[in-house]
Amino acid sequence: xxxxxxxxxxxxxxxxxxxxxxxxxxxxxxxxxxxxxxxxxxxxxxxxxxxxxxxxxxxxxxxxxxxxxxxxxxxxxxxxxxxxxxxxxxxxxxxxxxxxxxxxxxxxxxxxxxxxxxxxxxxxxxxxxxxxxxxxxxxxxxxxxxxxxxxxxxxxxxxxxxxxxxxxxxxxxxxxxxxxxxxxxxxxxxxxxxxxxxxxxxxxxxxxx
Length: 209
Description:
mainly alpha, 9 helices
């Protein structure tokens, strides 16, 4: 028996609809990530870095890899040839954002600080990030949850399999080397991606196209 959590009749994810879906999910993810920062129900819990976290060096130039997440988030909507997979991708990314936002509201976390020293474009990227993204909403890492979700979708495409392995790993490392996340946040993000994928598979019936 399928759980009626989401609509059963879904449109084909082709052409203009894919472009619209990519634009929608970009706005949806950003909104649900930033909103809890301005609606604090409780005081954030401070997470302490482990010895493993402290062993990771702060490399401010890896902010470029960290930012590349925005491109990777949209890539599967272009690369996936299976319309049903693209539909599930959209709903799974939505589930990631909704569940993460709920966690950020009831259990906000903080505790990391960055001190970038680079100038030029790298410094500008840091200035933009620090102006918008406060050192909170650490657990689970939505960055990692969405990256894992997109990697799985992209990995089904043979010509993109190497990209689906190397790029997500680079993004995951960058969340640590930019001190945006702790290892525990990454584990939480992966668990969130797995749960959202299960939720969508059991709650959404995508008809044959």
